[in-house]
Amino acid sequence: MNYWLVKSEPSHYSFDQLQEEKVTAWTGIRNYAARLHLRAMKKGDQVFFYHSNEGLAIVGIAAVVKEAYPDPTAREGDWSAVDIQFKKKFRNPVSLDSIKKEKALANMALVRIGRLSTQPVTADEWKRVLKLAGES
Fold this sequence. Notes:
Layout: E1 3-8, H1 15-21, E2 23-26, H2 32-40, E3 46-51, E4 57-70, E5 80-95, H3 96-101, H4 109-112, E6 118-121, H5 123-133
Parallel strand pairs: 1-3
Antiparallel strand pairs: 1-6, 2-5, 3-4, 4-5
């Protein structure tokens, strides 16, 4: 199993919306590196959901339930989408500031490549973020 992080502005699509809908198609990604990450996602992989621009925090966990397929929102080009499912909302969201203060997370893609909308998370980073969230 692999770990990932996806980002969304809460005003565009929030984790609360995912919780309500249960499953959503993760579409609209138009970055080549992010596309590679989408295509590497496998069913059962765990995903941190990060609120960007407003909130700036990892707010919960989703899981990949459908592997990469052609993005139905793409009018041209070779773009991909995956389906993700709500798993758990954090009682204590993990802010970007708290992540940046953790030396163990200094190399996390969220810190190094902040604008990338879909990114890998290492197993050690995953565990550390869960600890910061007060989750086991």
